[in-house]
């Protein structure tokens, strides 16, 4: 029976433990075998280097746990290895405050718009490092602008307006920068069928009628970037239009060459603008198959004598390929296209960062205004991008823009509406989730799109603990040199296992070794709570880091002890090998029995009010009719006052039911008489229970007394010596009142009857009058009335009638 109860209690304890435990520690679940493995699990994990930390049955991985748990288990803080990440700034040149009207001009490489320029981050897995990056637009920043124009036949009138673009644009750009260069290039289409006509005549002059056109070409670099606007005008004025067969043009081939042929174009490390002017759509990757071209564009420069020579060999570049090359070379693109193709190029703009679309008039007369507006739009926005980060590393951006506007997620990469001289900042958070396979440093770069400056970030990964540097290779502690003793534990050589590397992996499963892990030659290996490694039990870990198995055969644990109030050992002890070790003043199998009697004291300072015993801090009442925390409540008792009424009445006033047996039955208390109620004892004056009573005798007289028990035996009754009897009633006023009431009621009834009769008579009279008024006929109008008079005329008597 006892065994069954113990099993049920144990089962309930396990169920309660499962419901109460928190999510298991990631540090323990990782089963780390070394300090280096431990610190890579999570930021919260630490490694105890104390050589005596492990208890019997615990594996090396028990050294890896959360810091609080390690301290709770007895590892001193000084013995816990828990390296932290750090940030160091290697280059921190302040941003440039450059003024346009200053005589001394700075070179482009002397201008700084982003700060800092280089950092080193020491990253630990799971621990994020955050630094601030500042950006400030410099005034009078140099600009290189390359004008790339479609010279197909439909752009004939546009070419005339572009011929004076150099000097006019130079003049307008002087308002923005004093260091401006301009270049020019043109494109038509791939020089193969079906994009152009390959007949000899059409190759010389692809235009119809009498138009004099130049031979078709793919891309031509007409003018390298120059400060000479007149030279731009001169060379552009010499250009001739060409022609092709299909509507889409080969502009993507030209953009690719402009982007990658930096030396031929003359790009400097300044703001780079590419103006792409056309009135048609574009071919892209895959369209080359129509001309039998299947090789993908290689993204390399193929200019010979300023002409693109591989258009017939390589396909058009894809949009993604263009985006990559434009970004790599910090080129911002302005698409100057006609109204008809605005929707197409706006979609393209959404795919190419730092690009703009302007509406070109039919003859390109508004091209200067379009370029300036587009440049202002592009330069007022800064967007950060980074190159490919190592596997397991993540970057998060948070922008703090003008007027305190904060952006997160994708909006955290950019700030808009930035004027010259405005300073914005970005909080950049870099976090590593694991060490790279080679454990080497990595370098990433963050830069604002369209600018030549960037931030170099060197990432060093914390993959090993400092204590591992002082490790002892081939240590005798590790079973005669089968491992390196580092960080308080053995790191076993390949092919060796065990806490001290005492076993070979080939010997792990032998029956002889397993026999050492069976308690009392039983069948269970390590009590089914662990694994037998090299003839030694290594106990399993629990998801709850506070719970663990221990013992030579893992037969003990600290979570299967008796519980009270759903708490292990009642919350007043610790569980060791399934037995509660109680704190002071507690006892019992679940430490739920308190030896403190203060909870049993009644209001009179007596233990259980003198009616019981104090057991485990709770009163056990000896008289079953009493109950309550201190045996003060008696729900079935008649009450103190009613219980002693008859005895008080007979002894104080010699009346009542017990007046004949008063001496025999009522001598158990000491009677004390007082003159009035004010002399009775009050509860606040006493240190023992006191009851105030008010009772009535057979004559309806009240008497007052108190009943108290002093020192558990001495009973005292204080009684007021005079009775309070009610005075008799006064008969005369009562009789007079009754008679007067009857008379008044009679008069009231008469008056009510008289009033009702008057009302009735008046109603009858009014009814009569109404009927009288309604009678509208008289005797002359009575239809059944006949007159009693008859008239007859005597014919012989003067024609006079005779009335009878």
UniProtKB/TrEMBL annotation:
Protein localization: Cell membrane; Cell projection, Invadopodium membrane; Cell projection, Lamellipodium; Cell projection, Ruffle membrane
One of the protein's GO biological processes: cell migration
Residue span(s) of domain Integrin beta subunit tail: 641-730
Keyword Disulfide bond: yes
Keyword terms: Calcium, Cell adhesion, Cell junction, Cell membrane, Cell projection, Disulfide bond, EGF-like domain, Glycoprotein, Integrin, Magnesium, Membrane, Metal-binding, Myogenesis, Phosphoprotein, Receptor, Repeat, Signal, Transmembrane, Transmembrane helix
Domain Integrin beta subunit cytoplasmic: 754-800
GO terms, molecular function: C-X3-C chemokine binding; collagen binding involved in cell-matrix adhesion; fibronectin binding; integrin binding; laminin binding; metal ion binding; protein kinase binding
Membrane-topology descriptor: Single-pass type I membrane protein
Domain PSI: from-to ranges: 26-76
Predominant localisation class: membrane
Segment forming the signal sequence: 1-20
Domain Integrin beta subunit VWA: start-end pairs: 34-465
Transmembrane segments: 731-753
Similarity-based family: Belongs to the integrin beta chain family.
Alphabetized PANTHER family for the sequence: INTEGRIN BETA, INTEGRIN BETA SUBUNIT
Name of the protein: Integrin beta
Classification of source organism: Eukaryota, Metazoa, Chordata, Craniata, Vertebrata
């Amino acid at each position: 029976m006892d065994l069954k109860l113990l099993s049920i209690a144990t089962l309930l304890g396990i169920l309660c433990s499962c419901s109460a435990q928190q999510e298991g520690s990631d540090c323990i679940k990782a089963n780390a075998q070394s300090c280096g493995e431990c610190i890579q699990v999570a930021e919260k994990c630490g490694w105890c280097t104390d050589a005596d930390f492990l208890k019997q049955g615990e594996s090396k991985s028990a050294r890896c746990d959360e810091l609080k748990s390690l301290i709770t288990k007895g590892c001193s803080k000084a013995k816990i290895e828990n390296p932290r990440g750090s940030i160091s700034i290697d280059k921190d040149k302040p941003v440039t405050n450059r003024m346009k009207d200053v005589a001394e001009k700075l070179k482009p490489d002397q201008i700084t718009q982003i700060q800092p320029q280089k950092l080193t981050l020491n990253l630990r897995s799971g621990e994020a490092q955050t630094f601030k990056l500042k950006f400030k637009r410099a005034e009078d920043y140099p600009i290189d602008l390359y004008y790339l124009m479609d010279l197909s036949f439909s752009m004939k009138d546009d070419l005339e307006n572009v011929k004076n673009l150099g000097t006019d644009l130079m003049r307008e750009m002087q308002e923005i920068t004093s260091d401006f260069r301009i270049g020019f290039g043109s494109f038509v289409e791939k020089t193969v069928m079906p994009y152009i006509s390959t007949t000899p005549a059409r190759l010389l002059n692809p235009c119809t009628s009498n138009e004099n056109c130049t031979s078709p070409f793919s891309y031509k670099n007409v003018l390298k970037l120059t400060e000479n606007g007149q030279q731009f005008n001169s060379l552009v004025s010499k250009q001739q239009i060409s022609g092709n067969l299909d509507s889409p043009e080969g502009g993507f081939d030209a953009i690719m060459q402009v982007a990658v042929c930096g030396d031929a174009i003359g790009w400097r490390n300044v703001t780079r603008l590419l103006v792409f002017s056309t009135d048609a759509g574009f071919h892209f990757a895959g369209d080359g198959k129509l001309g039998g071209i299947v090789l993908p564009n290689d993204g390399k420069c193929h200019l010979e004598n300023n002409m693109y020579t591989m258009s017939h060999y390589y396909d058009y570049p894809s949009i993604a390929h263009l985006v990559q090359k434009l970004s790599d070379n910090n080129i911002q693109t302005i698409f100057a296209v006609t109204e008809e193709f605005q929707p197409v190029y706006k979609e393209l703009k959404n795919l190419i960062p730092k690009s703009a679309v302007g509406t070109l008039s039919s003859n390109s007369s508004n091209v200067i205004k379009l370029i300036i507006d587009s440049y202002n739009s592009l330069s007022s926005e800064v967007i950060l991008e980074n190159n490919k980060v190592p596997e397991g590393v993540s970057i998060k951006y948070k922008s703090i823009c003008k007027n305190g506007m904060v952006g997160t997620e994708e909006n955290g990469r950019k700030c808009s509406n930035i004027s010259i001289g405005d300073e914005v900042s970005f909080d950049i958070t870099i976090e590593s989730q694991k060490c790279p396979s080679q454990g080497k440093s990595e370098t990433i770069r963050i830069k604002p799109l369209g600018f030549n400056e960037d931030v170099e970030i060197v990432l060093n990964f914390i993959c090993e603990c400092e204590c591992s540097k002082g490790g002892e290779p081939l240590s005798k502690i590790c079973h005669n040199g089968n491992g390196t003793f580092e960080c308080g534990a053995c790191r076993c050589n390949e092919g060796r296992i065990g806490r001290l590397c005492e076993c070979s992996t080939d010997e792990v499963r032998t029956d002889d070794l397993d026999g050492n892990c069976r308690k009392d030659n039983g069948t269970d290996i390590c009590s089914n709570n662990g694994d037998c490694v090299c003839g030694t039990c290594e106990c399993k870990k629990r998801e709850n880091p506070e719970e663990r198995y221990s013992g030579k055969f893992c037969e003990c644990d600290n979570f299967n002890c008796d519980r009270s109030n759903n708490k292990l050992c009642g919350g007043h002890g610790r569980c060791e090998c399934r037995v509660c070790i109680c704190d002071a003043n507690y006892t019992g199998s679940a430490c739920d029995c308190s030896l403190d009697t203060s909870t049993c004291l009644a209001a009179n300072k007596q233990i259980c009010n003198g009616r019981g015993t104090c057991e485990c801090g709770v009163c056990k009442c000896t008289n079953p009719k009493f109950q309550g925390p201190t045996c003060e409540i008696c729900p079935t008792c008649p009450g103190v006052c009613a219980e002693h009424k008859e005895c008080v009445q007979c002894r104080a006033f010699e009346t009542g039911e017990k007046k004949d047996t008063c001496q025999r039955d009522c001598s158990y208390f000491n009677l004390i008489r007082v003159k009035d109620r004010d002399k009775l004892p009050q509860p606040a004056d006493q240190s023992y229970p006191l009851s105030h009573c008010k009772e009535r005798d057979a004559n309806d007289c009240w008497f007052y007394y108190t009943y108290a028990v002093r020192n558990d035996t001495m009973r005292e009754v204080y009684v007021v010596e005079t009775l309070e009897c009610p005075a008799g009633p006064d008969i005369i006023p009562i009789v007079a009142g009754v008679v007067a009431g009857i008379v008044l009621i009679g008069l009231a009834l008469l008056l009510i009857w008289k009033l009702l009769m008057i009302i009735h008579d008046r109603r009858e009279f009014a009814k009569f009058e109404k009927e009288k008024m309604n009678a509208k006929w008289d005797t002359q109008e009575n239809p059944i009335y006949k007159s009693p008079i008859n008239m007859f005329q005597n014919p012989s008597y003067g024609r006079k009638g005779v009335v009878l």
